[in-house]
Amino acid sequence: MKDNRRDFIKKSASLAAAFSMGGLGTAVANAGLEKAKANVVLNSMAKDAGMEMSTAYFSGIEANRQLIELAKQMDALGAVAGIDSRITGLTDVKPYEYKAIAAVKEAWKKVGLNYTVVEGPPSLGEKTKLGLAGRDEEIANFITFMKNLKKAGVNVICYNWMPVISWARTQMDRPARGGALVTAFDYDDIKNKPLTKYGEVTKETMWKNLEYFLKAVVPEAEKIEMKLALHPDDPQVHSIQGISRIMNTVESFDRMLKIMPSDFNGVTLCQGNFALMGTDTPSLVRRWGKAGKIHFVHFRNVQDLSGKLPSTKFTETFHDEGQIDMYESMKAYYEIGFKGAIRPDHVPTMAGEQNTHPGYMTLGNLFAIGYMRGLMESVVKGARKS
Questions:
Q1: Record keywords: Cell membrane included (predicted)?
Q2: DSSP letter for each residue of 50-85
């Protein structure tokens, strides 16, 4: 036993001497260092796959203090929100004026985030979408808003074509995995609701008004290089309380893009809604991505419960379940070279949280960002190995 131990010590001393004198030990150490350096570079390049990891803050800064601090710790620094006077204290300024926009941009900068996308732009409401008196003034204000937004350094506007009844759910606390709470929709629960004060609004009317808007706005967006990103109807049913919804099929988006062909007339690729229209998300990403039409991404997952297209009954899910192939979707964004803002959407409310802002609570966002970042690194490294 003593001889064996003496031999072991002697061999260990010889090996240590070899490393201290250079030789093989130095070569191995240098190779390891170079590999470590290469891994750092690769990880840096793989992180977020070149996209802008962002988070939505629709309830303002004060209501999202914890999420803001956590987002900075995760290095997910993009902020998506509207023009919110609550965070600026400005009450005597129109939201489309430069002073209001610059104040919002600065407020987000002060908390360490970069205001990248306006979601829910001001001066785009019922007058424009329903073709009512005063729409020309509303559109003129929208054009002013675009110019002032660009001046402030924000380049993407996410808007929708859902007047009166916008985003809609019939349940805000559907039990999900492990008791988490998600939002859900069932058309049967609202199909007998009365008409709104606007009565029946046909699809033809909605298309006519959308065309009027696009023809007025897209040429101005081109001049300043402002990306317009139309969000699909959510839910993607054909009508709610008499008001038709027209952006509820992929074919409708193709039609919209043809009305005013432009690099700045594009789409918010909200995965959940397009999946509930019956489309294969990765294929759609590649088709519109190669054409340069994807300006903004809502990365979410859903599950149809109706068996119909477009879906009339569905539930939100955690990002790692549901009907969408999330890996292949992320791979598609990387392959088409998408570099814009991408954010998690409609996340579950998790244990320990009050369901005060269904779909936008803190813990669900943390889970989603970690999941998305893992997918991003995976697709980048996978592409480099192939």
A1: no
A2: GSEEEEE-TTTTGGGHHHHHHHHHHT--EEEE---G
**Per-residue tokens: 282:** 């990765």
Helix H or strand E encompassing 267: strand 265-270
pLDDT digits (tens, 9 = 90+) for 135-166: 999 999 999 999 999 999 999 999 999 999 99
Residue 51 has pLDDT above 80, yes or no: yes
Could you report the per-residue pLDDT of 182-207, keeping only the tens digit for each? 999 999 999 999 999 999 999 999 99
Count up the domains in the chain and report the number.
2
Amino acid 7 reads D
pLDDT value of residue 2: 45
Q: Which domain holds residue 270?
A: 51-385
Residues 17 and 154 in one domain: no
Provide the token pair at 90: 């400005």
Residues 6+ apart with CB under 8 A from 228: 157, 159, 217, 218, 221, 264, 265, 266, 295
pTM confidence score: 0.89
Whether 180 and 316 share a structural domain: yes
